[in-house]
Amino acid sequence: MSKLDSKIPEGPIDQKWSKYRSTVHLVNPANKRSLEVLVVGSGLAGASAAATLAEMGYKVKVFCFQDSPRRAHSIAAQGGINAAKNYQNDGDSTYRLFYDTIKGGDYRAREANVHRLAEVSSSIIDQCVAQGVPLAREYGGLLSNRSFGGTQVQRTFYAAGQTGQQLLLGAYSALQRQVGSGNVTLCSRHEMLDVVTIDGVARGIIARNLVTGEMEKHFGHAVLLCTGGYGNVFYLSTNAMGSNVTAAWKAHKKGAFFGNPCYTQIHPTCIPVSGDHQSKLTLMSESLRNDGRIWVPKKKDDNRKPTDIPEEERDYYLERRYPAFGNLVPRDVASRAAKERCDAGYGVGNSKMAVYLDFAFNTARYGRTEATKRNIQNPSQEEIMRLGKEVVKEKYGNLFDMYEQITGENPYEVPMRIYPAVHYTMGGLWVDYNLMTTVKGLYALGEANFSDHGANRLGASALMQGLADGYYVIPYTLGVYLSEEVSRMSAEKDKPDSIDKLKTKHPAFDAALKEQTDLINKFLTIKGTKSVESFHKRLGLIMWNKCGMARNKQGLTEAISEIQALRREFWSDVRVLGSADEMNPDLEKAGRVADFLELGELMCKDALHREESCGGHFREEHQTEEGEAKRDDANFAYVAAWEYKSESNWELNKEELKYENIKIAQRSYK
Amino acid sequence: MGSGHGTELNLTLKVWRQKNAKAAGSFETHQLTGISTDMSFLEMFDVLNEKLIHEGKEAIAFDHDCREGICGACSMYINGRPHGPKNLVTTCQLHMRSFKNGDTIVVEPWRSAAFPVIKDLAVDRTAFDRIIASGGYVSVNTGNAQDANNILIPKEAADEAFSAAACIGCGACVAACKNASAMLFVSAKVSQLALLPQGQVERKERVKKMVAQMDEEGFGNCTNTGACEAECPKGISLENIARMNRELTAASLK
User: Fold this and answer.
1) What is the ipTM of this complex?
2) Contact at CB, B70 and A75, closer than 8 angstroms
3) Which of A88, A281, A322, A508 is close enough to A421 for a disulfide, judged by CB 3.0 to 4.6 Å?
4) Residues 6+ apart with CB under 8 A from A553
């Protein structure tokens, strides 16, 4: 008997959600006021959930490790947000967004969740515009769209290259409105260190005040983890420096199963590594693939300047291999193709681990259109490029500036050099249809859960999912559980030692607090010789080399023992200075790296067990003759949900994936 | 002018160290060698911190997160300028190619009564959150929205609102101002919402509440020196301050 109950409602796929949300139990307004909800993380998922739940009347507390909720890493999302509005009249629909997402995820996502995501996508755009989010407009005043990978319609809404910033600031202002009206208590510069469970039910968290070092106990009737992904296990990624797995990992160790940890998205267009000093990698938005063409020289070790290489000596390998989608193939496909060319010796730049993303062709095309619009007869090539550059600047100006800041090269003049980098993690805490983990009362939203993107996420879908979970899913599904809580509270109201009376005075809170305080003291008393940073870098290298874009049995087996050895070394030789009762960034990082050192092992274990290739998970042993990912649907059409038993010991639980509405097929973008 | 690709710099760093809000702070001097010009300014600080830890000394605390110029966390006052010598970049996007071999670089936290130092280079900017909480929003609960394309917005208005909305809330404007005024920050949000149809209903109340909160937080007055605009990493325009003053006047005349 499976321990997993996905709680997918009965009925046809397009009626499941509407029927469910109209029939689930509700919590009456008076009872909402006595229910406390803890929201950990203040990105798109956390801020939207916290604001909406507070609007509904719940008492909400929000925690973020940053100095302000506005700095959560959703802020850095660039390109856009998908919605099945069909404003472009190009054949889009809820079904098509659903289909594209399932196919893009290489048939490893749960149908019911993805359909719900597609259904609520339109409302997200409505809500954001109502908040005053300045999405891009056409001259007639209507919203503008752009294309993203893995689709053949234009359904991506955007705000220049700062869509995440604008959407997050919208959610943040909604959140601050609730803070201002006293419905939300904001705990910034706080890091959640553990979830407190009583009889297997989540009842609160332990958090450290990062300014004073004080360890705090917080009670909640429900705990929502909106804590993002774990890409920083690779050390180098496009994630923010502070992004970490600690909240999710501690929850995992308290009983929340971890779903598909090995599904990692390596984004094809990032600025390449420039040296050992590198602290993070920077994405160049997928939207650039609308107007940029990706190529390498046809000759190996061609050291000519890119602008000196004539057209016929360039290999536009994505257009060559995938004529139907060309430069807009999904991310996993584009990344592997770049790796293949570089590994074969066709890479460019000093490191030879880069390919060109070239805007000259489309700059000229825009320039010619502008010349026609302005009635300029026989424009010179320079005139065309000047006019085209203005158009490109308006669309992607901030991205081009950022590229120039980082590399010192002007991408208007020479093609960008790009290479894949870790960007997003599709895996995460296993959740049911209500977004509840396997720990009762504990939820995971946004990137922190595993549910919607299968083995590969399509571009512009992360923002959609974060906001869908926060604005439109959890406000309904949380009531399913909290209405039960209301009954329990009423039944226990005369019990002197009820959970509701004791709250943080319950011994479980003290035990959890002590455990976390001891852990902090342990970091400070090891007094070893190596910095936290050095361990993180070494872990990252193991993960990138052996659990990165391509994986194989031997490498993964080696990685597991290397990570175990590194973890032992960490716990005997790490050096953490300063004290526990003050702001101490090094101590914060020690806790995060300690958790990454455990997660890394589970990722390798998951990748090792999944004897197939799918989406971002590419096992070299399982590929077609053309080098494409080869799935094994007979044996692996399931979610791997890992249950923590003890150190290095997990039990695998499987949730079978049933495709009742989409025919499971070999994914083709040719 | 800066240095080219792949060269290395030897530098003297004078960094503000302060144990906590109550302690007195002072400058500490460090020598760094072999700093690649391809490094970002914060990666140079990573190198320094690794060196300090290796020597058994506590690392320097500073705020940073996305390292791609958008989260607004980084906040160093470098050689007398917020975010350093280059215009239109945050500290994290400043690269060492903007410096020369042998340079002395002085690094301090933002200085403002409304931004108390927490430790070393990290300051408390929660005043900004409280200003937004006082009125920097459109009051629309989730689920109340009409179809997005029912609200037509002229492209010029949308673009101008977007330019104001590009503010990252880093506080460089306050740090740059001799009066520690927060007018650029506040006016950017007031402008964004005043320019859009969605912001009209609460337009007058919003500006009054936000300005009142700004004053309560202890930020100084604006004397039109323009230092904020000059140092803003996102190029937020002074025109926003002019617009906010007009909005406030209009809101006060009933």
Assistant:
1) 0.98
2) yes
3) A281
4) A608, A619, A621
